[in-house]
Amino acid sequence: MVDKQSSSLVLPIIALSSFLGTFLISAVNIALPSIGLQFELSPVMLSWIVTAFLLSTAMFLLPVGRWADSKGIRKVYKIGIVLFTLATLLIPLSPSGSWMIGLRFLQGIGAAFMNTTGQAILVSGYPVQQRGRVLGISVSATYMGLAMGPFIGGYLTQYAGWPALFWLSGGVGIVVCFIAFRFLGRDLKPEEPTQRPHLRGVLFYMAGLTALVYGSARIPDSTGWILMVAGVVSIVLFIRFESKSQSPVIDIKLFTHNRLFGFSNLAALINYSATTAIVFFLSLYLQQVQGFQPRVAGLILVAQPIMMSLFSPLVGRLSDKVQPRYLASAGMAMCSVGLGAFALLGESTPVGVIVAILLWEGIGFALFSSPNMNTIMSSVEKRNLGVASGTAASMRVVGQIVSMTVVTLLFSLFFGEKLMNEVPKTQFLKAMKWGFTIFAALGVSGIYFSFNRGRLNR
Fold first, then answer.
1. How far apart are CA 431 and CA 289, in angstroms?
2. How does residue 2 score in pLDDT terms, banded at 50, 70 and 90?
3. 190: cis peptide before it, omega within 30°?
4. pLDDT per residue over 326-363, tens digit each?
5. CB within 8 A of 37, min separation 6: which ones?
6. How many CB atoms lie within 10 A of CB 149?
7. Using an 8 Å Cβ cutoff, are 224 and 41 in contact?
8. pLDDT digit string (tens) for 306-322?
9. Hey, which of 87, 204, 282, 300 has its CA 20 to 30 A from 7?
10. d(CA 36, CA 14)
11. For residue 371, is the peptide bond before it cis, meaning its omega torsion is within 30 degrees of 0?
12. Quick one: fold of 4-186+249-451?
């Protein structure tokens, strides 16, 4: 808990950093065609502008969550916002696409520090009866960033160039750094000393994620398949080490002995795996296939996150009164239907149809996200809040990686080493149709875990 003088600023600080992270993610998606043109990147290399950020975030979320429980969640959060802001300000100076990918990787590490501690700071600072409302506001800020990203990003990319996105975000990051260091306060010493986590298993986790993601970019070459198999083996070894460790980075028993926690996290993993690539695919589709300027594409893509932002606080508050699994399962079903509709897009699909599907998808995601996070954070003891927050964030980012890995795999199979502006429209549409079909099937499978998680006892 923080002192009374600064406690009122906890929610604004976390909400502002949540806004910043997602704003940049969605804005970069709009800028991808311009970035690819400047650095002459292939579709696979272009996907790494997004994937590098997600990969490093996923690699560090779990160990950072465990570390934060012993070192202090506010201390770790402050380190994260500094690292994130520094990398953001360096990205516009990148001399090549490879440099930009490397700095995006560094930026993702900073995001991991913030993401794994933000929700824990909120939950530790508010009573259980207010968690749904507070988390709903935080999620709303996250979706507001997603909403403003395409809108502002489209205008900045078209009229000031893509580097302006990072200069703007870096400036906001400096403001967040000042507020956090001035008002967030310090951590209280833990009542009980915590054991230092064993990191051997984490090395397998990091290696496994890297092998899976990089291997997907090398398919259909045999090296790609070997890397992906090695990645799966490494993840299995990670789970084995963690289940036997006396001081694990992630407590496997939380999954095996706590059905609410386990199924809610699996539902989140599947939901993000199914929905993350929507903006990536549609950004390229609207600009490369339909021929819209970045600002127009950004305005169209605003539809989905606006619905998320509007409905998340309402659903979050409702989840304090209604069993969250009913709301989340309905949201997952809506998302699956929307993904199936995206698979039917053609070269001349009317904009009104695209916007309608985005609105539907946004409402579905809002119904799922806040109740699901409320369940995860309310299903563990207070001493495990950092681990729970880190695990939930890991499910989100690993799901995002799975989504982008599917995209990278499809791009490798369909486009090879062609530059993005050399890919025929029909070929791109075919790859996108396969992608959304896979994602819709994933979404349907997630309904089972969402609905069968059990009852949350408040």
1. 13
2. very low
3. no
4. 888 889 999 999 999 999 998 889 999 999 999 999 88
5. 420, 421
6. 28
7. no
8. 887 788 777 777 777 77
9. 87
10. 32
11. no
12. Growth Hormone; Chain: A; (1.20.1250)
